[in-house]
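The material for today's practical consists of a large collection of protein records. Getting from the letters to the tokens is the skill we practise here. To make this concrete, we reproduce a full record directly below:
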Amino acid sequence: MPKSPKLRIEQERRILLAISAIKSNEISSAKKAAQIFDIPCSTLRGRLKGASFRGETRANSHKLTASEEESLKKWVLSLNKHGAPPRLAQVREMANILLSKRDTTSPPTTVGEKWAYNFISRTPELKTCIAGRHNYPRARAEYPKP
């Protein structure tokens, strides 16, 4: 498996070309297509059986569903639009509220300490929408009292 993202994308492009060549009957077997396009035969066979590209699949370890994460993203963007971007603790608290609404077990499932940070990291639209801590001594130095 290639290590860099560019090589993975290039390999994925060759896999798609091999699949289209097999489906259009230009190449008769998966083994021959794998040799021609310089890709692993097992990967090509898996894709022909319906396996998806690893970069496009959603991990099973996400606590919130895709729709819950989308609504959380819209909530953050809405607060930011109104000039009150939430802090990471508020994002985490809202995620826990969403989880408690869905999960009715006695101790409700909660997201972890770093969940909000990871959520912001994997959601590019939100990277600049989260309020950070204020450095009060620095603010006083920049804007002294008259």
Remarks:
- Residues 5-23 form the longest helix (19 residues).
- The CA atoms of residues 1 and 29 lie 22 Å apart.
- The chain has a mean pLDDT of 85.
